[in-house]
Amino acid sequence: xxxxxxxxxSSKNSINKKLIIYTVxxxxxxxxxxxxxxxxxxxxxxxxxEAQIGHPERAKAFFDKIxxxxxxxxxxxxxxxxxxxxYKNLFDxxxxxxxxxxxxxxxILLSTSPGARGGSSVLSTAVxxxxxxxxxxxxxxxxxxxxxxFDLASGCITNxxxxxxxxxxxxxxxxxxx
Length: 178
Ligand SMILES: Cc1cc2nc3c(=O)[nH]c(=O)nc-3n(C[C@H](O)[C@H](O)[C@H](O)COP(=O)(O)O)c2cc1C
Hints:
The chain has helices spanning about 15-25, 45-55, 55-65, 85-95, 120-130, 145-150, 160-175; strands at about 1-10, 30-35, 70-75, 105-110, 135-145, 150, 155. The chain is α/β, with parallel strands linked by helices. A five-stranded parallel beta sheet has the order 2-1-3-4-5, sandwiched between helices. Strands 6-7 form a two-stranded antiparallel ribbon. The termini are close together.
């Protein structure tokens, strides 16, 4: 069983990537690959640029990584109540290969931010739109006040309630695959 996971952020110190690494570390007996959006950087999407260059190799590579997975875990960074430009740009390129970018994969969608709302606006957008793009959302969770609930030294969530919410989300996904 293969899990592909990534933070929808291109920040080098992404807190969503830290959350992804913590979350996949809780999984047992699965093959995990954590992607980094910086490996899939592309020119700003436009239909004119697409007419010039077609489907870029990096978009195909990212789309194929999703296709090779059994399930997906994504943690969304929130910029101005929405997706980061880096994620939206890559997603737009991938959607031109096939609008069902998520290829019918079951998925857990997470978000976190330093603030009290925990990226809940972008998460809500991601959850509600996923079915249109072939995503089967099994669980979603917004984690508020990341810096208060995560210990950087150990790389762990310190709040027991959030820990158990993450575990519960993971159970819903693994039971789907079994
Ligand atoms: C341009 C910009 C816009 C932001 N907008 C929001 C926002 O709307 N809501 C929010 O909770 N945090 C917002 N933030 C703070 C981010 O949540 C914070 O930078 C977080 O670390 C981003 O996640 P990442 O570290 O995984 O990239 C914004 C940050 C930037 C740079």
